[in-house]
Design brief:
Blueprint lengths: L10 E4 L2 H10 L3 E5 L7 E6 L2 E7 L13 E5 L3 H9 L2 H6 L10 E2 L4 E7 L5 E7 L1
Parallel strand pairs: 1-4, 5-8
Antiparallel strand pairs: 2-3, 3-4, 6-7, 7-8
């Protein structure tokens, strides 16, 4: 029997790991690990079956500050998730997106999705197939 992949745990670059953890907690994630209680340089958060790791990087290590990766999250109720995020007015101002899908909409590629950016510019796309 061939080997199988069980999950993926992306590691996102962060300038301030503690601030990034707080941001993801406001998205409904909970912290499950951090390397140092006072000044974390590596941490992990989880929501449902999704785990994200956050690792400190000095700004000089970022080749192009605006060239950030994008992560796609499959979710069952896109509009409900969007409303959950919208209920936190401060969070909404932090995650304003320049994407045409800043609010849930159907895409030409057959999904319903919305996009946000975390404090370090990493793209977060929440979607479901139509």
């Amino acid at each position: 029997m061939p080997a199988t992949l069980d999950s993926v745990q992306p590691v996102l670059m962060a300038r301030d790991v503690a601030a990034s953890v707080r941001f993801y907690e406001r998205l409904g994630f909970r912290q499950i690990f951090q390397d140092d209680p006072a000044e974390p340089r590596y941490a992990a958060v989880r929501r449902d079956g999704v785990e994200i790791h956050l690792q400190w990087h000095d700004l000089s290590q970022w080749a192009v500050a605006i060239d950030r990766p994008t992560y796609r999250f499959v979710a069952s109720e896109i509009d409900q998730l969007y409303e959950e995020f919208q209920s936190d007015r401060e969070l909404v101002s932090e995650i304003a997106s320049d994407s045409p899908w800043a609010a849930p909409a159907e895409t030409p590629w057959g999904t319903r999705e919305f996009h946000v950016r975390d404090p370090d510019g990493n793209g977060l796309h929440f979607y479901r197939p139509l």
